[in-house]
Amino acid sequence: MTTALIVVDVQLDFCEGGSMGVDGGAATASAISAYLGRSAGRYAHVVASRDYHEDPGDHFSSTPDFVDSWPPHCRLGHPGAAFHPDLDVHHLEEVFTKGRFEAAYSAFEGHATDGHLLTPWLRARDVDAVEIVGIATDHCVRATALDAARDGFATTVLLDLTAGVLPETTARAQEEMAGAGVTLTGSVR
């Protein structure tokens, strides 16, 4: 199997102190970097996704419901859209940017610098398995894993390298991912 690692949305706005900070986000950034340092040669490709909103419509709200609408986050040109400084971006071959004009949760909705979506990008490189890490387990990691499995990739989420927003929604996300055939290893931070 040819395996790629997908690092999902390890951005300042999703870590402590950000507009939608997740407890354990900074530690997850550091843990992913340490893992990448130990895993040289394990992956044929290492890519990342990032939220990068300009005008995502109803995705942003001054009175968010935290289901379909959220506080403004990861806005184009704002510091919170940057990758967390503890994430070693030197390992990243490509970054898939998502959500410029709409809500986007899955890395598979993102575009590479050349405009390609993630699935055709991976297929062009003969990738048939993906491992997924990042933030947040119960939202963008979940959506990415479900899309990967739906698109036919053997999919594993390394829960030790993820951070979830709430225990209840994280538990539901794990059940949903497992039900879709996603392999889960470790435990969420």
Quick overview of this protein structure:
The protein is α/β, with parallel strands linked by helices and 189 residues long.
Strand content: 15-25%
Structural class of the secondary elements?
Answer: alpha/beta
Main β-sheet, spatial strand arrangement: 3-2-1-4-5-6
Shape, per Cα inertia axes: globular
- Give the N-to-C terminal Cα separation: 28 Å
* Gyration radius over CA: 15 Å
Mean pLDDT: 93
InterPro entries: Isochorismatase-like_dom, Isochorismatase-like_sf, Isochorismatase_Nicotinamidase
EC number: 3.5.1.19
Domain Isochorismatase-like: 3-185
Keywords: Hydrolase, Metal-binding, Pyridine nucleotide biosynthesis
Structural account:
This is nicotinamidase. It is an enzyme of class 3 (hydrolase). The relative contact order is 0.20. Helix 3 (137-150) packs parallel to helix 4. A six-stranded parallel β-sheet has the order 3-2-1-4-5-6. The radius of gyration is 15 Å and the shape is globular. The protein has helices at 25-38, 118-123, 137-150, 167-179, and strands spanning 3-8, 45-51, 94-98, 129-135, 154-163, 183-185. With 189 residues, it is α/β, with parallel strands linked by helices.
